[in-house]
Amino acid sequence: MRAKNRLTAGFLKSPPVGKHCDGAGLWLVQREDGGAQWVLRVTVHGRRREMGLGGYPSLGLAEARKIAGRWRDVAAAGRDPVKEREKEERAARREDISLAILTADAFEARKAELKGDGTAGRWLSPLTLHVLPKLGKLPVTDLDQRDIRDTLAPLWHTKADTARKALNRLSIVLKHAAALGLDVDLQATDKAKALLGKSRHVAKNIPAMAWADVPGFYASLEEPTPTHLALRLLILTGVRSNPLRHIRLDQIEGDVWTVPADAMKGRKGATEAFRVALSREALRVIDLARPHARNGFLFPNNQQGVISDMTLSRHMERRGLEARPHGFRTSLRTWLAEATDAPHEVAEAMLAHVVDGGVVRAYRRTDFLEQRRKLAERWADHVTGGAGQVVKLAGAR
User: Fold this and answer.
1) SS3 category, 47
2) Cβ pair 222, 292 in contact under 8 A
3) Contact call for residues 256 and 277 (beta carbons, < 8 A)
4) Is 51:40 a contact under the CB 8 Å cutoff?
5) Each residue of 294-312: pLDDT tens digit?
6) Handedness of CA 262, 267, 270, 273 (dihedral sign)
7) Three-state secondary structure along 77-106?
């Protein structure tokens, strides 16, 4: 056995900078700034482990030797002292493994991949509004399917989409807790879903305007305000509200607007941006909006951000319209089906929908930009009051 108790109280009154061995893996590390730290080095299953025991002189020599002896015994028994200490700390602070704490930790771990949801807080809202007020203080290791069922039952048949999102988020939190080494039931959400039964909620599509009525609404957007101009460009391009509201001047080159991959919903893990063919009318709208641009954004709000989705929706609501901004995508897609002979894959590409399997897409390396450019011009002709004749694409099957 290696010699122990090499250090003395006299030496510790003024130890030089460096590492000083007390024996059997216990070291005092004296820093240049005057501080010092006790460190224990042990070997577990052939793997060297190092753990800090505390600072000196708050932790004296005798106490450091006592603590070191305890963790050496743990290592001798074949257990990792670092992990054992972590388990003890978690057990001593039960509130640190509450569902609320683990939810916040899981959110931080995945926030970077959540696109706009990370900053807008929509990922968290199903839990913060409907789950954490009732279960937030519960240790995540105690959470079971009955807790989840009782919490989500009031939503299951009335707000099914919210309840489904809450279940999905809870599953992610439980997997995160399991990855941290906590003993959780990873099937709790699936069991809760089985207990809740089939939802009676019938999903409703977002109200859309008939494509024949779009020109009349477009003509009413005559003022060059950010709201009117944003709605015009939304109609003309068929994109979703989020990339439209966050459009930047540096994303526009010529008659092409390149939407970053991470802004495209439904393209998780996508590495390619999406190109939007801009019609002459769309370019005119962009030019009208340029005087409003700030910090690179074409449609800024009065603070530091961009125009909100609610601003666009409320404008239509105040006009007494049932349709909502997102519904213009449906208007465009229906027009493509009823008033053009565009192939299915081209029509779907107009709305940035992902079609076919990954293998097919890997070999079909086109985004149909030129075909979409022609359709964008015809759609612009329609919404600005042009003729509604059937559009034919050259070479279309």
Assistant:
1) strand
2) no
3) yes
4) yes
5) 999 999 987 778 898 889 9
6) negative
7) CCCCHHHHHHHHHHHHCHHHHEHHHHHHHH
d(CA 176, CA 144): 16
Q: 380 and 279 in contact (C-beta within 8 Å)?
A: yes
Geometric angle at alpha carbon 114, from 108 and 117, rounded to 5°: 95
Sorted by where each starts, the structural domains of the chain and their CATH numbers stand as 9-91 (3.30.160.390), 95-196 (1.10.150.130), 211-383 (1.10.443.10)
Q: Are 103 and 124 in contact (CB under 8 A)?
A: yes
* pLDDT at site 286: 95
163 contacts 127 by C-beta, under 8 angstroms: no
Between helix 61-76 and helix 81-92 the angle, nearest 10°, is: 110
Helices (H), the chain: 9-12, 61-76, 81-92, 99-110, 116-120, 125-130, 132-135, 145-156, 160-179, 188-196, 214-220, 226-237, 241-245, 280-289, 309-318, 327-339, 344-350, 358-363, 369-383
Give which of 312, 168, 147 is closest to 239, Cα–Cα. 312
Q: Are 172 and 111 in contact (CB under 8 A)?
A: no
Residues 6+ apart with CB under 8 A from 247: 233, 257, 259, 297, 298, 299
Considering the entire predicted model, what is its pTM?
0.54
- 261 closest CA partner among 249, 273, 251, 245: 273
Residues lower than pLDDT 70 in the chain: 1-2, 90-95, 112, 114-121, 200-206, 264-271, 354-365, 386-397
**The sheet that has 256-259: what strands, in order across it?**
252-253, 256-259, 274-277
Q: What is the pLDDT of residues 30-50, one digit of tens each?
A: 998 889 999 999 999 888 999
User: What is the spatial distance between Cα 75 and Cα 92, in angstroms, rounded to a whole number?
Assistant: 21
Q: How many helices (H) and strands (E) does the chain have?
A: 19, 7
pLDDT at 115: 56
